[in-house]
Amino acid sequence: MSWLIKPLEIHRKLIGDHIRNDAFFSAMKKVVKPKTTTVIDLGSGSGFLSFLATKSLDAKRCVLYESDPAAMSLSKELAHNNKITNLIFRNQDSREVKKSPHKGEVVISETLGTYALEENILETLRHGREFLTPDGIIIPGILRQYVAPVISSEPNDTVVGPWSSAATRYDLNLTAASKRSASNMYSLKIKPEQLGGDRRMFDEIDFNRDPVEQLKSVRKSPECTVYGFCVWWDAELVKGVTLSTSPYSEMTHWEQCYLPLHPTLKCDGEDVVSLTIESDSSNNEGCLVDWTTTQKKNGRVIARSTNKT
Ligand SMILES: C[S@@+](CC[C@H](N)C(=O)[O-])C[C@H]1O[C@@H](n2cnc3c(N)ncnc32)[C@H](O)[C@@H]1O
Predict the structure, then answer these.
(1) Which one, 31, 34, 208, 276, has the greatest CB density within 10 A?
(2) Which residues form the Methyltransferase domain (predicted)?
(3) Which among 122, 140, 128 is positioned nearest to 100, based on CA atoms?
(4) What pTM was estimated for this model as a whole?
């Protein structure tokens, strides 16, 4: 059935990421009490996390919310094949639930994107507290986002290069297409040696409180050309278990988030480069991200550019 190909392909990638799986399993192991804990799984996909909670950790029950009917039907079939019976399936977007008949001591949601907020995790977990018993635990608990300038041209060559090489090869002007490609957000592998200077944390969200967006970062650049920015996150799933998409950590299926710059910025040691990231993840069709870069010399703005996805 062709309609299963797309969702299956997403879940195949997730399930192949043992760093992700092990981190979520370790986090649940710390908080799931056998035969006692109810787990509410928001965005349950293939049902994998709920299967770990019930079959491996003996949770009392799991309630699975999944908006995609194909993924939900797959999870039911897998549960049946694994003889897991203490599951309640809800084929709906969890954010539409007005008053939940089920509460859990643990609410878990793996709705993290390469750009952490792109799968609406803010909205899902803000509403997700509705499903929590008093003193219940939300996984992930804390999310931190980081940024560093990219001073190697390689990632830009990867995203814009195909247009330039086709333009040269067939004598065409494809500049407009290159420009649009430079205004997109990418999932790419960024190597630590492609980064310039210090990384900076620009956002910290504690899901146990109402999440507040603070998306701003400023840093002083070394003498270099800045080709774009690498953005990554650390999710403290529970205390002592952190999952990271940092270029300094082992690679996950999320890789790193790359925000290219067009035009690139030539900086000397005195220049200060500011980056402002604005994102709207309330959009059901995806996540809109704008990034504005300002370059200042001796306090005076000498360049500014805005990229929009
Ligand atoms: C990244 S997958 C994770 C699947 C599974 N939890 C796992 O870890 O293998 C996220 C899934 O959440 C679903 N989803 C995202 N937000 C949701 C929401 N608020 N309510 C229900 N489903 C949601 C998507 O359709 C997708 O299948």
Answers:
(1) 31
(2) 35-139
(3) 128
(4) 0.90
Beta-carbon contacts of 303 under 8 Å, excluding residues fewer than 6 positions away, are 265, 293, 294, 295
131 lines ligand 1 (CB under 6 A): no
- Cα 47-189-141 angle, rounded to 5 deg: 45
Is the Cβ–Cβ distance between 259 and 307 less than 8 Å? Answer: yes
> Distance between the two ends of the chain, CA-based, in angstroms?
32
Q: Where are the chain's structural domains?
A: 2-110, 144-308
Q: How far is CA 85 from CA 42, 49, 80, in A?
A: 18, 15, 7
Distance CA 47, CA 87 (A): 10
For residue 94 and ligand 1, the question of a CB distance below 6 A is answered with yes
2-110: which CATH architecture? 3-Layer(aba) Sandwich (3.40)
| Alpha helices by DSSP H, 129-275 | 154-170, 175-181
Q: What is the pLDDT of residues 200-222, one digit of tens each?
A: 888 899 988 754 443 444 455 56
11 CA closest ligand 1 atom index: 9
My answer on whether omega of the bond before 134 falls inside 30° of 0, hence cis, is: no
Pairing of strands 132-139, 104-108: parallel
Give, as one character, the DSSP assignment of residue 33: P
Pocket test for ligand 1, best of 19, 22, 66 (most atoms within 8 A of CB): 66
CA of 287 to the centre of ligand 1 (A): 15
Question: Is 43 touching ligand 1 by the criterion CB < 6 Å?
Answer: yes
Encode pLDDT of 239-285 as tens digits. Answer: 999 999 999 999 999 999 999 998 888 888 778 888 888 888 876 66
CA 93, CA 265: separation in Å to the nearest integer? 42
Count the residues in the chain. Answer: 309
